[in-house]
Design a protein that fits this description.
Blueprint lengths: L6 H10 L16 E2 L10 H17 L11 H16 L6 E3 L3 H12 L8 E5 L4 H13 L7 E4 L9 H6 L5 E7 L11 H10 L3 E5 L11 H4 L3 E4 L14 E4 L44 H17 L1 H22 L6 E2 L12 E4 L3 H10 L2 E2 L1 E3 L3 E4 L8 H16 L15
Parallel strand pairs: 1-11, 3-4, 3-5, 5-6, 6-7
Antiparallel strand pairs: 2-8, 7-8, 9-10, 10-13, 12-13
The protein binds pyridoxal-5'-phosphate.
Catalytic activity: L-kynurenine + H2O = anthranilate + L-alanine + H(+); 3-hydroxy-L-kynurenine + H2O = 3-hydroxyanthranilate + L-alanine + H(+)
Function: Catalyzes the cleavage of L-kynurenine (L-Kyn) and L-3-hydroxykynurenine (L-3OHKyn) into anthranilic acid (AA) and 3-hydroxyanthranilic acid (3-OHAA), respectively.
Pathway: Amino-acid degradation; L-kynurenine degradation; L-alanine and anthranilate from L-kynurenine: step 1/1; Cofactor biosynthesis; NAD(+) biosynthesis; quinolinate from L-kynurenine: step 2/3
């Protein structure tokens, strides 16, 4: 049985891996192990190519690039929204590529948070990513309410949320619910279908932040009847630093007046009429504001092709195999070193990364980086390791755990301060 914990075994898993060929599509640092694709996905050759293509269309066409060339800029946000819709289980015109995660959250909340009578509060959770909370508090303030109108469901253990607790907090004072699909630390998946049903039974609108699930797990947003969702494209989708984000708007809201309207909210046929009365697009496209950031959209053309070819179900299957394997290795090799696995063990609740804790986490991460293993540190004691289906191998996982083992056994982290870097 020791065979399982050898490099040969890792290689045998790689030999059977049906997504193996995609590894060559990416720029990997060959003598290192990248485990941070859940913070910033690596560059693919196709993403690089599509970025060059759009620079060239600017060079070649000037202003006419809006309508000429292989990827006319004027329709790009819509056509990429269509491509992305298969990753979130939406209809083609329910997704638009626009803005940033935080701006899209502001936009959706400014539209759907309509306090009325007793229903004045927003429901969120206590473990979500800070930008969501900052945006929700700012939206409350714009409508004349203070922070006491933000209800944050608490976690018993600081790692996980219970759907029962969230549902219990859906009182008749709640006007809107915004939750993450996957918690950014522990990697817990929330049951979006169940939560949406519970919210709708109580007449509350509900939206999800998909930053940590898009490109890593499949979704059925339309079938689950989710009202809205938003996500970034630079993590699991590999769109590059600051690549343009996306959002989902359930088709039942087509025609709604967008809270942060701009001329790109227009029906595309009417936009250049230059009328001072907005005719919003009858699609999710109404949630665009101004001119799209074409050069930051460009890499997504190539990046999304890879997902389309590989298939999100296959990505999910391999991702679970990788994280299963990583957890098995950690439990076998590192059980005496105080490294505790804190992500859900079952498949239904586990997102795309492994999350472990150790009191020396900050400097363990620095020691890993010195040995060219790239994790990310989450204060105060968390280490996230994300083996990514499209470009990480089982051998990468093996190397990562072996290097971590030497660092722990030889206490190589002692040479570093146990403090986070400015970006971690
Ligand atoms: C990464 C992340 C964000 C980032 O928002 P930006 O506007 O892209 O900076 C927001 N929410 C969650 C849950 C994230 O993981």
């Amino acid at each position: 049985m020791t065979e399982k914990f050898t490099r040969e075994y890792a290689r045998s898993l790689d030999a059977k891996d049906e997504l193996r060929k995609y590894r060559d599509e990416f720029y990997l640092n060959n003598d290192g192990v990248y485990m941070d694709g859940n913070s910033l996905g690596l560059m693919s050759k196709r993403a690089e190519q599509s970025a060059f293509d759009l620079l060239n269309s600017w060079k070649k066409y000037g202003i006419d690039g809006w309508t000429e060339g292989e990827h006319p800029w004027y329709f790009l946000s819509e056509s990429l929204g269509e491509k992305m819709s298969e990753l979130v289980g939406a209809k083609k015109d329910e997704v638009i590529v626009t803005g940033s995660t935080t701006v899209n959250l502001h936009h959706l909340v400014s539209t759907f948070y309509q306090p009325e009578g007793k229903r004045t509060k927003i429901l969120a959770d206590s473990l979500t990513f800070p930008t969501d909370i900052y945006a929700l508090k700012a939206q409350l303030k714009l409508k004349g309410y203070d922070d006491s109108h933000l209800v944050q469901v608490q976690s018993e253990d600081g790692q996980f949320l219970k759907e029962e607790d969230i549902i219990e907090a859906m009182t008749d004072e709640i006007a809107l619910i915004v939750l993450p699909s996957v918690l950014y630390r522990s990697g817990q998946i929330l049951d979006m279908k169940r939560l949406t049903e519970a919210a709708h039974e109580r007449n509350i609108k509900i939206g999800f932040d998909l930053c940590h699930s898009v490109g890593s797990i499949p979704h059925e947003l339309h079938e689950w009847d989710v009202d809205f969702a938003f996500w970034c494209t630079y993590k699991h989708l590999n769109g590059g630093p600051g690549s343009v984000a996306a959002l989902y708007l359930n088709e039942k809201f087509f025609g709604v007046s967008p809270g942060l309207a701009g001329w790109f909210s227009s029906d595309k046929e009417k936009q250049f009429d230059m009328d001072h009365t907005l005719t919003p697009a009858q699609t999710a496209g109404a949630f665009q504001i101004g001119t799209p950031h074409v050069l930051s959209v460009a890499p997504l053309i190539g990046a999304l092709e890879l997902f389309h070819e590989a298939g999100i179900e296959n990505v999910r299957k391999k991702s679970l195999q990788l994280t299963d394997y990583m957890m098995e290795l950690i439990e076998h090799e590192l059980k005496d070193d105080g490294i505790v696995i804190c992500n859900p063990k079952n498949h239904e609740q586990r997102g795309g990364h492994v999350y472990v804790e150790h009191p020396e986490a900050a400097r363990i991460c620095k020691a890993l980086k010195m040995q060219k293993v790239i994790p990310d540190f989450r204060t105060p004691s968390g280490i996230r390791l994300a083996p990514v289906a499209l470009y990480n191998s089982f051998e990468d996982v093996y190397d990562c755990v072996q290097i971590l083992k030497t660092i722990m056994e030889e206490k190589r982290y002692n040479q570093f301060e146990n403090e986070r870097n400015i970006v971690s």
